[in-house]
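As a warm-up, study this chain.
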Amino acid sequence: MATRLTRRQFLELAAAAGAGVTVLSAGRPALATTSASGHAVLIDVARCIGCRSCEAACKAYHKFPAGEAADLSPTAWTYVRTQNLRTPRPHLNLGADGAARRTIKTQCMHCASPACASACPVGALRKTPEGPVTYDAGRCIGCRYCMVACPFQMPRFEWRKPLPVITKCNMCAERLRRGDGPACVAACPMQALQFGTRPAMLAEAARRIAGDRRYVPAIYGAEEVGGTSFLYVSDVPFEELGFPVASREPLPAFTWRVLGKLPGVVVTLGAMLTAFEAIARRRNEQLAREKEQTR
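Now compare it with the structure written out below.
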């Protein structure tokens, strides 16, 4: 049976909760950002030929089963998807069926202020200074909050294992620590992938856009959700390629903005309940006096 609380006990608990949220909000860690020394990968959609060499290299390096991926999964951290285009463009090669298409490499975006890490209650996900958002399976409790929080829907869960964990691209973090780039970058035969510091990749993206009118004048990931460590340039609008429209503000900022309002909500609710109790008490006392007078 549920324990019943008096109004006084409820108000005391509410006040304690409000104080706890206030302390949490005041002592929250600063939102992580990609520093000038952080690394990034530039993906040029216009150069991608859909060969899936990046997929194969990712699988080989992480010792996943070989074969083309059907989507991101616990054994496919990189996936090259195909997008049919609504409006053909003169410079695009057409497929055998006459349709214009583009192929797009997809993987974890490695946000500068990752929502997945903000949502994780045990710190199993964290942003590293080098650029990757890494995952510690030893800390994970399987709550899957990171899957809900991710604006790009990248984390995957090992549903078929008795002791499942979350999986996603780790940007080959161990290779970065050795001074090497991600395995997928080295495998691309068309140099559609380029690795370097984030400022250098942003500069290279801007250079390509300025030097070729076919490119859309935008860099996806430069500002989306506060910036990401995977950046895209394209000769087709990103909306037509199925990229999600994302806020420029880091998503954890929304979380803390809501938490910051909770103490006020708790205090207001407590004051309202106190007022209701006082009104009800006076009304009951008046009814009791009237009943006494009629006897």
